User: Fold this.
Amino acid sequence: MLHHDRHEILRACQALFAPGQVAELRALDAVTRDWSRLHTVSGYFDDWEKLAAAAAGIRARGIYVTLNPANPALLARANNRLRDMKTGESATGDGDIVGRRWLPVDCDAVRPTGISATDAEHDLALARAHEIRAYLQAKGWPEPLLADSGNGAHLLYRVELPADDGGLVEKALAALAFRFTDALVTVDQKNFNPARIWKLYGTLAAKGDPTPERPHRLSRLVEGA
Amino acid sequence: MTVLTPVTREQLAALAAEIPAEPPAEPRRSSGQAWRYGLPAQPLDLAQWIEEHGLDVREKQDWRGGKRWIFRICPWNSEHRDRSAYIVQFASGAVAAGCHHNSCHGRDWHALRDLVEPGWRERARSSDRSWEPAAQRAGSEAGSPDRASDGPSDAAERAGESVQLPWSIGIVDGELRWGGRSGNRAYLRHGQLRYTVTPEGEGLRVKVAAGNRGSVEVILDVDPGSPDLDAIASRVAVALEAPVADVRADLAALPEQWVAHPAAAELPPPADPQALTDFAPWVTARLNERATRAAKDVVGETICRWLLERGALVCDGDRGAPYLLADDGGMLALTDNESLSLQAAVSRCGVNPAEPAFDWLYHDLRTTAANEGRRVQVRRFSFSDPATSTVYASCGPRGYVVARPGQKLEWRRNGADDIVFAADAVLPEWDWQAEPLSPLELQAFQPALAAPLEVPDYTPAIQQAFLGVFLAGVIANLRPLPLLALLGNKGGGKSTLGRSIIRIIYGPASGVTPLSDDPRDFWAMAKMRLCFALDNVDAEPPPWLVDALAVVATGGRKQSRKLYTDEELTDKEMRAAVVITSRTAPFARPDVAERILPLTTVEFSDARRRADSEIDREVGEYRSEVFAYLVTAAANMLSWAPQAPGELPARFLDFARLAWAWYAATGQPGGAIPALNAWRAAQALAVGDADPLLRAILEYAPAEGIQHRTATDFVRLLGDVGATLPHLGGGKAIAHRLRELRASLSLAGWELIEEPDKVNKRSFYTLRHCRGDGRSGAML
Assistant:
């Protein structure tokens, strides 16, 4: 059985986060020793070693982090540790984000919801990400991080924008979706809000049950880190 | 780590600017009569326009409430093939087109029309407002002299013209339909204009309502059974105070909207569906938010009938009546719950499988399958029929392979002969036409085997033969099979062999599994897999493991309480074959030991050692060949097995018969009995043979035991009483080995007690006979 890759997680943290940044680690549909019903687990980290150690030990459908730096005060909610989230406890909101560091582009093959991608679908999404990167490169854009989300492909472009960017990221994603979404692959245009959570690379993408055709895969950074 | 350069605001803004902007609304020329009736401008049917002009676009996508098409090749510059050129129709009906390349700057919708529809501007000018609906045109012409005298009576006169109607009010298949089964009522909406057609006495009543301007009602004396459509059209025209021809033109666009309306519940299903996807437009049309139970029944029944006729809706004949579904993609995808394949089938019908409101479709499929579906045998991975000596092994999701003794392998489509392999239990595809190759020819299946010192008859050749029997038994799903225990110190190829066995079965992505702390992992594998390998089961195994192995080795079942219930029990058959690699066989309790097939390894000489990568590649390369060999061998074994002598020297007769058949099938029937004798003797030694320290204890420990010794003293004492031991390392290493041996020793009737001395950070060990333990000494 596949397991989360702690080294890959650490590598991802170092690529994604600035030193001193606070990031929320959030696992959806998790099961913990204390609570066997599916629930959300969350913690705030500025120590990536601790984040990687915590993430590697989680059993969950998906493990995510906030991409953009959160208000350091949130560290006091769960300081470099994980907690089980109960009803009414809040996760990072858009108002808690202090700035935007990433333009996140997510390519996914079109398939029924809640299941993992086949190898062919996975390859399609990766190919589309390469296409987008080549297109933006031709427009003079810098290199992004290229990552395999387990079921699709991610491109992460560095930006330096305030949390309230006047809809710039939203429009840029909409423009990419307009051009590159088709019947086979969707470019997600909903990842524009600053507190968006994002797949933590090195963790297992475990949508649905694994089958030989639709296996669970390890997400990972492919290029740029 | 590379430092990434941020994207500038300008670059982001330039990208953002690529989203097409909605053009300003076309000027409305809507004055006069038609405006009174609120007739909207009829939007251009862009999809039709694109088709008419043969534009090479990728398929239509929904976009912000409208539609979007991307050109494969830019119509203005054939070098632009990077999805840069587009046409969109906004939700308002407005159209925009363009290409993102700088050289195409300024190209727009009108430029596109100029290019593909030359002369359109002239035509538009001559007919003035071709984009406007005819009635609207008529309305705005109301002030012209020839229309000035037009009144309702004049219109009625025109309405009296006999006209051939290209349109229909809800005409489907040439007859007027009104309402569903209960409603006897139909209506259409088109913009703000509404027609209602209801039966009235012997005729039909047509009510025409226009916006907030009130309505006009007309009673039509037509027979509802065979309505005079011409008359309806005429009277509608009268009500509208517009020329019949114009009304007719306006209404030409109606049927399409009509089809999407609940009243179209009578829309017939597709005439000759070839796949579930062919039902999608029909299902979508019928099942909008107002779908009645009756409408759902029709959809469910139609789809179920169609699947039944194709033999695609099936039911597991062995397990009572679970609902099983086969889709139409040439692949039988079986399921007994709302798993992927069922969802996939439902989504092909045009229904969102995630929407709970569509549970009824699942229900229809399930109950129809259970009640009327073809009864089939649902199988997992592979199975054999001893009566005909036939082995059936799945081969990818689409087919299975049939092996009969002395015949070539045959491929069948999954579902043929009423045999269906469940979608979650098929072996990854292998090339069934490959030339058979014995696995024993591959390096991976030649570990450094050695006969145990105590049983020199259990030769490497015999062990290899039994390995072959085991593999054929696994592939053909012959059960029960013994536990294959690969015993010996490191460096003998144990794990490699375990991994290779799993990779032959499941392909190169699979491998051995470390023993998990959670027994549920074990049970899940035992239930769901054909075979699994536990690597390095050493030291003290968790207490449940021995019991679990006993259940699996005896082909037993496991009962457990269903999650979240108090009383419901589930009863699961544990059929997986198990491979274990270990140094000390601590799991070998007597009832398990007699079902163990031990292979004892020694360390490879450097000359024989091969790289793992090379071995793995070989296994991957010859997987199909080995598969072909094993299913053929299994079929041959089945044909020989009935001739096996009644009394075979083995505790585990099922496997002994197979082994006898293997020897017979490979032309050495005389070899089986000595081999089985040797196996039986080796089983007794399975526990202790591999470890020199264990053997020294068993052979040389004084009868009264050993009292309170440190680890080093413990070993020294064994040496003093005559045991020859290799160098075992320092005190810590010896202590570790002693702990590992504890379980094995208990099988032989010895109890090893460890007393830690925390002050001096060491432990003392005491060896004594177990008291009152019925199994004592059973093994040796």
